[in-house]
Design goal:
Length: 77
């Protein structure tokens, strides 16, 4: 569920939605979501001073509260 949420948010922000990939790594109580976008779209996903990245992390963490899980969103290149 969190993976699909992150993917849909990222695809709405970028110019190249076909190049959005989310890798999900699960532990017992936490989930790590690695977001990878096109090189030209990195700035759009991170935003000025990281504001958009912070907002994305906040939304995904709020969705994870329902499942009593901890979510970490990493934006990788």
């Amino acid at each position: 569920m969190m993976r699909e949420l992150l993917e849909s948010i990222a695809r709405a922000l970028v110019d190249y939605p076909d190049e959005v990939f989310v890798n999900e790594i699960q532990n017992e109580k936490s989930i790590i979501l690695e977001l990878k976008v096109a090189k030209d779209d990195m700035g759009k996903v991170i935003g000025k001073q990281g504001r958009i990245a912070k907002a994305i992390r906040t939304v995904v963490k709020a969705a994870a509260v329902k499942d009593n899980r901890r979510v970490v969103v990493d934006i990788i290149q």
